[in-house]
Amino acid sequence: MEVLECINKRNSIRRFVQDQIEDKNLQTIIDAARIAPSAANLQPLEYIIINKQEQCASIFPNIGWAGYIKPIWKPEKHERPTAYVAIINTQPKNSYVDLDVGIAMAYIVLSAKSLELDSCILCKINKKELKHILKIPDFIELKALIALGKRNETVQREENINEVKYWRDKKEILHVPKKPLSSIIHEQFYNKI
């Protein structure tokens, strides 16, 4: 799959089939993150692959899912991710690390999509408990967690300049509003004054 095709086909997926991801595919995904650009080439990031059923089960309660969907929602047991990638920072004094994390996350989710896998970057996580479960020492930061698996839901993108909240319809299709290109692009200078 070409890069632009991956970008256009990729959505945040929160319901997964329970097929295990092959180890070689997880290694390929992490290798893509490994070679991602890094500020000053400091390469502060390392990655923990979580793909054993018991470990995935211990991770799951420490995640908030789909904050816009009410009432509070989480994937059912038969819909949970079959793998996670934790991104850790081994250089806590590195002031550019958040840039590296953003780039690495993009490489992870796009390389996963190129392998016909789906993902969700998880923003609401219990870092303290996850560090304990993953045996991450105090001097290393847990920066991000990404869920991986094969999709078990349909997502429909919709252009909408006024709305950012996604929702599920009666058929359980997830609708995700995205701003139109014309509303976010400026030529030569900022022109919305």
Describe the structure.
With 193 residues, the chain is α+β, with helices and mostly antiparallel strands. The chain is built from five helices and ten strands; from the N terminus they run H-E-H-E-H-E-E-H-E-E-H-E-E-E-E. The protein has helices spanning 3-9, 23-34, 53-59, 97-114, 127-133, and strands at 16-17, 45-50, 63-64, 83-89, 118-122, 124-125, 141-151, 155-159, 167-168, 174-178. Helix 1 (3-9) packs across helix 4 and helix 2 (23-34) runs antiparallel to helix 4 (97-114). The N and C termini lie far apart (40 Å).
Q: How are the SSEs ordered, and which strands pair?
A:
Blueprint: H1 3-9, E1 16-17, H2 23-34, E2 45-50, H3 53-59, E3 63-64, E4 83-89, H4 97-114, E5 118-122, E6 124-125, H5 127-133, E7 141-151, E8 155-159, E9 167-168, E10 174-178
Parallel strand pairs: 8-10
Antiparallel strand pairs: 1-7, 2-4, 3-6, 4-7, 5-7, 9-10
